[in-house]
Amino acid sequence: MNHEVGSELMSRFVNDIRDAISRGDLPRRFRPNDVRRACPGWADRTYGVFLPKHRRGNPGEYTAYFERHGDGRYSLIP
Prior knowledge:
It is a single chain. This protein is mostly helical. The protein has one domain. Helix content is 40%, strand content 8%. The chain has 3 helices and 2 strands. The protein has helices spanning 10-23, 32-38, 44-53, and strands at residues 66-68, 74-76. A two-stranded antiparallel ribbon has the order 1-2. A hairpin with a 5-residue loop joins strand 1 (66-68) and strand 2.
């Protein structure tokens, strides 16, 4: 499965992450490589770019889906 991350697919990527957490395939706090393993099939660049781009307080004012923690891990914003 090969996904492109455009505005129409952002929610699908976030839902993949949410589903992986629900299944127990991804911890509640995760790093991009954890997401890569738990949610395969997205463009390789997506895993390293999407999380910081959509974190709370991002400089581009993109929709925030994630909280970045002091240890570098992320979690979904409820």
